Amino acid sequence: MRERPVGPSAFPVIPPLSALRQHSDSNMAVSIAKCLASYVYILLISLIFPHVFADNAVGDSPHRRFEYKYSFKGPHLTQSDGRIPFWIHTGNAIPSSDQIRITPSLRSQKGSVWTKSPVSFEHWEAEVAFRVSGRGRMGADGLAIWFTAGQGLEGPVYGAADQWNGVGIFFDSFDNDGKKNNPAVLVVGNNGKLFYDHQNDGTTQSLGTCLRDFRNKPYPVRAKITYYRKSLSVFINNGFTPDRDDYEFCTRVENMIIPDTGYFGISAATGGLADDHDVLSFLVFRLAEPGQNLPPPEKEIPKEEKDKYQEEFENFQQELDKRKEEFQKEHPDVQGQPIEDLFESVNDREIRQVFEGQNRIHLEIKQLNRQLAMILDEQRRYVSVITEEISKRSSQAQSGQAPTHEMETIINTQQEVLRNLNEVRDSLSGSLKQLAMGQQQGNAGGLGSYETVQHFNDIKEHLHVVKRSIEHIIQKNVVRRDIDIIKLPITPLLKVKCPELPPLTACLSTTHFVVFIVVQSLLFFGYIMYKSQQEAAAKKFF
């Protein structure tokens, strides 16, 4: 057996610390150089083949296509007969030209709208704009957005049927369970066998939820619901800004299984408390995965709808022909002219509106001029009367008396008022001249947009000057007249003393006052107890 040598060579040689540092620095430099080389390589590849990276960047975003048969939006939301194209409404729903009021702010109301034809999209996205407004601090009951296998036209779940087969997105505004977790947005699925848990606000059945206050907002609240690759996502725009794309994430449900074919619907209900539930728009988009072509849009519409539209077109055409005949009978001098010449164009309508506005301004200025002339006549008569009074007093009174000086002050004031009124009248005359010139130019060939605006600005400026001058004259005249009246010798009148009033006797004793306070307190507490009982009774349980 060989023995291990003992000595310096038997142990490993440890390099000095400086050598270790140099080795680590060299390794770090090599790694940094490799990273930089890889970055440069990737940059060159991206510059040479940009479409590869572009496809990867947008590879997960689906393609969207708007589907008008499952959507509605104002204005002209309804037809002449009050119906919504491609939709039906039931219950207390009230369609109008710019929105659909699902339920009015009355107690125990229910309403809904549903698509007529079923939806067979594999992936879809719905954008809903609505308002929920009411007077009270709390509202009821709420609004629901549906995608179900059948039309739940009426029922106890926010105005729609219970035991639905599909998914519902609930905007619950009433706190049934008393946990103060409302208003809230809930996603609840159902296979057609479950009953909705009203007493717990559906919290035991919800697949996703978020707390959002959607009542009494300055702008419409918007909800974006996306079903893509078996994932249901809900985004909410709180309605604080007019930005339509300012969405916030609410909730997402993965592995969501819904019917392959279903109907879109919106429903709402009220209970002991009531809100207005208004839907402004409901837009549906078909989604397709990247690389998958969308199916061609339906070119043929159902025969019933086609016949209905054809009948409406024929009725409109008959009414138009009837009106043309009536117009030809009333205006035989325009027979034989092209139809286009019988109706005014957009430019002619604008010029006519400008001329009508100028004529109204002209009449108003004339009326103001007549009123100023009447004021001038009254001021002249007033000055003449004062002048005669001064002449009479000057002939009777001695020189240097105070009334003569006061009357001269009044005359000077009235003369200044006359001068100001003359200036106002001159300004009005200038405005009338400018208006007449503008009308002559318009009759000659029509006013340009810049000249029209400039002309109206000049008229507006003159009218403002007239208004300020009249207000200044009225204020100065009233103040100086009051001063002149105060300065007149009325010392004999001031010496007359008013009779003293008899002392008033107390009509309410202390005992009566205390009894009154006690009765009022009892009535107040009784009203508070009655009000609390009414609020407790108004708490709804479906």
UniProtKB/TrEMBL annotation:
Keyword Disulfide bond: yes
Family matches, as InterPro entries: ConA-like_dom_sf, Intracellular_Lectin-GPT, Lectin_leg
Sequence intervals crossing the membrane: 511-530
Xref: PROSITE patterns: L_LECTIN_LIKE
Keyword list, A-Z: Disulfide bond, Lectin, Membrane, Signal, Transmembrane, Transmembrane helix
Compartments it resides in: Endoplasmic reticulum-Golgi intermediate compartment membrane
Any Pfam family hit: Lectin_leg-like
Cellular compartments per GO CC: COPII-coated ER to Golgi transport vesicle; endoplasmic reticulum membrane; endoplasmic reticulum-Golgi intermediate compartment membrane; Golgi membrane
One GO BP: endoplasmic reticulum to Golgi vesicle-mediated transport
Keyword flag Ion transport: no
L-type lectin-like domain mapped to chain residues: 64-287
Superkingdom of the source species: Eukaryota
Membrane topology type: Single-pass type I membrane protein
GO MF term (any one): D-mannose binding
Identification of the protein by name: Lectin, mannose-binding, 1
Organism: Cyprinus carpio (Common carp)
Gene, per the UniProt record: LOC109087115
